[in-house]
Design brief:
Blueprint (H helix, E strand, L loop, with lengths): L27 H14 L4 E3 L9 E4 L8 E12 L2 E5 L9 E5 L2 E7 L5 E7 L1 H13 L10 H19 L1
Antiparallel strand pairs: 1-2, 2-3, 3-6, 4-5, 6-7
Length: 167
């Protein structure tokens, strides 16, 4: 489901790497609440701040079975393990799924909204979501995993899909 506040590929803002947050904004709780609301309205399970126009190195994620969301500022993956291939969709590339190989387990470090350092060991779908959102913060989209030939084919189909969405 498309959401009017989510930036959509090929928006050039999505290709920018977001710098680390040096001073946590005083309205961080409002920002993360907005991110969670937009993510849930769009039926997503993860959202990076730059997907809705914030130049903040921050993401939110919540799997359907989770009560509490994962909110991480300045995320860094310290270590990875395993590998799995799985199709991924993206709120910024609506209607598209691309098979992407990713580690199945990650050790993540970052900062919470209170400015305290946090570490997580994540596996399965949440490990994949975190890697996907960090890709966004680095200016990498799921389409960047396509070969040149597949990307050209994708572009033709995607343009048709976007025109259909606009109608």
């Amino acid at each position: 489901m498309m959401h009017d506040e989510i930036r959509i590929f090929p928006d050039p803002f999505l290709k920018n790497r977001v710098s680390e947050i040096e001073n946590i904004p005083s309205n961080i709780n409002e920002i993360t609440a907005k991110m969670l609301r937009i993510m849930e309205e769009a039926d997503g399970i993860g959202l990076a701040a730059n997907q809705i126009g914030y130049s903040l190195r921050l993401f939110v994620a919540r799997l359907p079975e989770d009560k509490e969301p994962l909110i991480v500022i300045n995320p860094v993956i310290l270590e990875v393990d395993g590998e799995d291939h799985m199709e991924e969709g993206c709120l910024s590339v609506p209607g598209v799924s691309i098979e992407i190989p990713r580690p199945t387990r990650v050790f993540l470090k970052g900062i919470n909204t209170d400015g305290k350092e946090v570490e997580y060991e994540l596996e399965g779908l949440m490990a994949r979501v975190v890697q996907h959102e960090i890709d966004h913060l680095n200016g990498v989209l799921i389409v960047d995993y396509l070969s040149r030939r597949d990307f050209i084919r994708f572009q033709r189909e995607y343009e048709k899909l976007l025109k259909k969405e606009e109608e």
